[in-house]
Amino acid sequence: MLTIDDSVRSLYPGAKMGILAVKKVVDISFMAEQEVDLFINYLNRKYAHLERQELKELNPINAYVAYYKQFGSNYHLLAQLESALKGRKTASFNSGLLQAMFLSEMDDMLLTAGHDFAMLHLPLQLKIATGAETYQSISGKELTTVKDDMILTDRHSPISSILKGPDFASRITSTTTEVLFSVYAPPGIDEGYIEGNLLKLEKRIKAISPSSKTELLQVFS
After folding, report:
1. What pLDDT is recorded for position 5?
2. Does the residue 55 lie in any domain?
3. CB 139: neighbour CB atoms within 10 A?
4. Which residue range(s) make up the domain with 142?
């Protein structure tokens, strides 16, 4: 399913990737507004008492802050968390799967990419970008990878990267019935924490699609 190239271990020793693959996803529904409100209340209890600098020092946020800093960027999930804590609408979804993924990201602050599993060409590989790879962004825009960024590729091309996000070809849509989620984990994030996040995401998917079947839930290092 997935291999980690030696270039990753050399440049980012201790980096990991979590994979959750689920098939037979049907009858997808969205979380009720009341449930979303309860989740936002939960996030506030978990994070709202902390100042921005204190949030940046929390694990695993600190691992992403350090990773993004070397590229002169900020960890975008932190800004989305702050918006969610203020009750602002941070994302719109055309799939219950995307909503489940976003809630899991906000819950544990682990950067996750979602893909239509049926559109992927296995095997997958986590590797280091040369800065010359190109692919279509989730919005359909042609983009080029950033040198030394971690990217996930299938047999044909990149399907996501930390800095540039997921690709267009394997995007999750309202008709997706097979899904793969990949959690990017820079050095400093515990394997058990990633696995716990995947288990919660699996539970959220089961809640909106009880007939779904988990094909793989694993943390690669």
Report:
1. 98
2. no
3. 9
4. 2-29+93-220
Total structural domains within the chain: 1
Average pLDDT of span 86-115: 85
CB distance 95 to 204 below 8 Å? no
Read off the pLDDT of residues 10-30 as tens digits, 9 standing for 90 and up: 999 999 999 999 999 986 667
Least confident of 43-47, 178-182, 191-195: 43-47
Q: Is residue 160 part of a domain?
A: yes
Report the CATH number that the domain containing residue 165 is assigned in CATH: 3.50.40.10
Note if the bond before 123 is cis, omega within 30 degrees: yes
In degrees to the nearest 10, what's the CA dihedral of 76, 157, 219, 50?
0
Among all chains, which residue has been given the structure tokens 């990773």?
A: 67
Angle formed at CA 124 by CA 135 and CA 159, multiple of 5 degrees: 20
Nearest to 167 by CA among 177, 157, 180: 157
Give domain status of residue 40, yes or no: no
The tens digit of pLDDT for each residue in 68-94 reads 999 999 999 999 999 888 876 555 566
User: Model pTM?
Assistant: 0.94
Residue with tokens 């979602």: 114
Does 84 reside within a domain? no
Distance, CA of 110 to CA of 90 (rounded, Å): 16
